Amino acid sequence: MSDENNDGYENTETGTLTKTEPKTKKPSLYKVLMLNDDYTPMDFVVHVLQAIFGKNETEAVKIMLQVHQKGVGVCGIYSFEVAETKVNRVVEYARRHQHPLQCTLEKE
Ligand code: TYC
Q: Does 50 contact ligand 1 (Cβ within 6 A)?
């Protein structure tokens, strides 16, 4: 492919630059947001951030406190499919443990 760098310009051997549409599109990215509530234990939220979002304990505590104090916090930024799967896993896991923890998606 002559447009390997995906900038939409084809550099031909004659030195001519021809504007073309890039053939590949970067996937849109989505933020996964964690929402505060009055009932879910802090330890449970920290555990979810480690188990589902791969955060270490320090990062997980920081995000949990941000959510607790501000009402919302970013758990990570992913392609739509990955973000949607993580949201579903959080809501399902919380429900199984009878906590009202909620999580949602937002386009970047
Ligand atoms: N506000 C909760 C409490 O005081 C803790 C909490 C933090 C809940 C983050 C949800 O996403 C959340 N137990």
A: no
Q: CB of 2 within 8 A of CB of 14?
A: no
Strand partners, 45: none
Helix (H) or strand (E) holding 8: none
pTM: 0.81
Q: Which of 103, 84, 105 is nearest to 44 (CA)?
A: 103
* Ligand 1 centroid, distance to 2 Cα (angstroms): 52
Count of beta carbons in the 10 Å neighbourhood of residue 55 = 19
Which of 87, 34, 37 is CA-nearest to residue 60? Answer: 34
pLDDT digits (tens, 9 = 90+) for 41-84: 999 999 999 999 999 999 999 999 999 999 999 999 999 999 99
What is the residue-averaged pLDDT of the chain? 87
Burial of 70 (0-12, 13-18, 19+ CB in 10 A): exposed
